[in-house]
């Protein structure tokens, strides 16, 4: 039962992040349209876009932070910290496990796509 609630929590987090990304893209598009309407664009103005490598790096760092947080909670619980209860430790451990598994699946799919592209005839 705890795993199901944790999965639902992770899914809601993913949905909220997706909606935030969509909102950020809309804001960037609105700003670029406004720049064309309000006045001329500067020639040397570069638009900073995140590439897949940056996004993957951020995902790895995020998973690492979740795992470190779970490890810190586990250590605090083992040391007898009265502010840390077993439910928080177990939920953090499950979040860590689910996030690592999701990252592993993404990596596997990226590797599979790369292999497919490399095996395509020219």
Characterization of the model:
- The protein is mainly alpha-helical and 122 residues long.
- It contains three helices and no strands.
- The N terminus is likely disordered.
- The N and C termini lie far apart (51 Å).
- Helix 2 runs antiparallel to helix 3.
- Helices cover 80% and strands 0% of the residues.
Describe the structure using short key phrases.
single chain, 122 residues, mainly alpha, extended
Topology:
Layout: H1 2-38, H2 52-78, H3 86-118
Helix pairs in contact: 1-3, 2-3
Helix content: over 70%
Strand element count: 0
Proportion of residues in β-strands: under 5%
Cα end-to-end separation: 51 Å
Global morphology:
extended
| Rounded radius of gyration (Å) | 21 Å
Largest sheet: none
Which structural category fits the helices and strands?
Answer: mainly alpha
Number of helices: 3
What's the order of the H and E elements?
HHH
Mean pLDDT: 79
Low-confidence stretches: 1-5, 37-41
What's the short story on this structure?
The protein has helices at residues 2-38, 52-78, 86-118.
């Amino acid at each position: 039962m705890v795993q199901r609630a944790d999965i639902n929590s992770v899914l809601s987090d993913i949905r909220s992040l997706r909606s935030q990304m969509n909102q950020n893209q809309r804001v960037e598009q609105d700003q670029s349209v406004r720049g064309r309407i309000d006045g001329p664009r500067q020639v040397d103005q570069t638009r900073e876009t995140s590439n897949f490598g940056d996004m993957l790096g951020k995902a790895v760092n995020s998973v690492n932070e979740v795992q470190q947080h779970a490890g810190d909670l586990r250590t605090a619980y083992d040391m007898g910290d009265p502010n840390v209860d077993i439910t928080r430790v177990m939920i953090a451990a499950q979040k860590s496990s689910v996030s690592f598994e999701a990252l592993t699946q993404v990596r596997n799919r990226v590797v599979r796509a790369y292999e497919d592209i490399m095996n395509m005839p020219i």
